Amino acid sequence: MRYLYYEDKYFDGLLKLWNDEAQIRGFYKPFTPEGFRAHLINHPDFAESASFVALDGDEVVGFICGIVKKADITDLSKPGYLTAILVKSTHRRKGIGAKLLEMCEIDLKRKGRKAIRVVFLSNMNWPWYIPDTDKHDHPGAPAVPVNSPEYFLLLHHKFDVQGFCDAFHLPLDQYETPQDVFDKMKVNQEKGFKIELYDPAVHYGLEEFYVNIQNEAFERAIRYNLSLEKPNPFLVVSQKGKVVGWTGAMYTEPSGRAHFDGIVTDPTVRGVGLGKALFCTLCQYSKEHGSKFMTFFTGLDNLARNIYLYAGFKIVQTFAIMKKELK
């Protein structure tokens, strides 16, 4: 068995390993050569990666990719990220994963990293299929799938679990807006609240909304969508025209997935059912405009998960956010 730095001459073997294992496990999505190169090799952070292959003869039977984000190179307080570790099914339990992990950790320490994390913040997240569906997908796994071979490997090598994310899914042909939502919206309409498509000629107050919600990711999503030549439609909660809630851009992805950026309401209007009504309106809109399903993930401490369960979504996979101090 040989362990070497990744070079492009191993690309075809690595792609075959990924796609073969994807077919066996039925979890991660397979890639075309162009798609795999775009996702991994051409990723902006791959140039600074700590990536290695395991070779049995000339066959690639293992791979690991650790990265330092370009934005973090000069900040040694920032961790490195483990974005992929994969061993061929027939070669597991032979120490290959452990050796690859050791080499990756050593290389990241050389780059000045004091810790390594597995979390969606790496920005190199792998698309996966929802189990027991007709290829319903999600564009990125947020961390390590619980009970996967990778999860147990990392546990055995002193990675700590920092938290969990749950993935939610619902076929939209099963979605129906609960009557309770309509009843509460009647009450809220009497207070001047509406849920409607954003119209810049009608609605105002986005800058104040950004300040109030204190969520940079949501603010970036709104600004990006509005910067497009033809912005995607999105819903808002308005009070006499003032924006106090938001759903994110609404469109159907090629797989049939309803795109989902998130939902948020202004803290000053929470507790009266507006967030629940906003999400349910988003689901109904997506269903009526051709989306086949919705998927997303959220942390265990995110209270919005209660809205998702109320709307009929099911938890289909749990992911573990993991970290190891590099000593």
Question: Any descriptors?
Answer:
alpha+beta, elongated, 2 domains, nine-stranded mixed sheet, Aminopeptidase, 9 helices, four-stranded antiparallel sheet, 327 residues
Can you describe what's shown?
Strands 1, 2, 3, 4, 5, 8, 9, 14 and 15 form a 9-stranded mixed β-sheet that branches. Strands 10-11-12-13 form a 4-stranded antiparallel β-sheet, with helices on both faces. Strands 6-7 form a two-stranded antiparallel sheet. The protein is an alpha+beta fold. The radius of gyration is 22 Å and the shape is elongated. The chain has helices at residues 11-25, 33-41, 96-110, 149-156, 179-190, 206-213, 216-227, 274-288, 304-310, and strands spanning 2-5, 50-56, 59-67, 80-87, 115-118, 128-129, 137-138, 144-145, 160-171, 193-197, 235-239, 242-246, 264-265, 293-299, 314-325. Helix 5 (179-190) packs across helix 8 (274-288). The model has no long low-confidence stretch (mean pLDDT 95). The chain has 9 helices and 15 strands. The protein folds into 2 domains: 2-165 and 321-325, 3-Layer(aba) Sandwich (Aminopeptidase); 176-311, Aminopeptidase. The two termini are 27 Å apart. Strand 4, helix 3 (96-110) and strand 5 (115-118) form a beta-alpha-beta unit.
Extended strand count: 15
The named CATH superfamily of the largest domain: Gcn5-related N-acetyltransferase (GNAT)
Mean pLDDT: 95
What level of helicity do the residues show?
A: 25-40%
Named CATH topology of the largest domain: Aminopeptidase
- As a whole number of angstroms, the C-alpha radius of gyration is 22 Å
Q: How many domains, in number, for the residues?
A: 2
What characterizes the major β-sheet?
Answer: 9 strands, mixed
Count of DSSP-assigned helices: 9
Overall shape: it is: elongated
From the helix content, strand content and strand pairing, which structural class follows? Answer: alpha+beta
CATH class of the largest domain: Alpha Beta
**H/E element order:** EHHEEEHEEEEHEHEHHEEEHEHE
The low-confidence parts are none
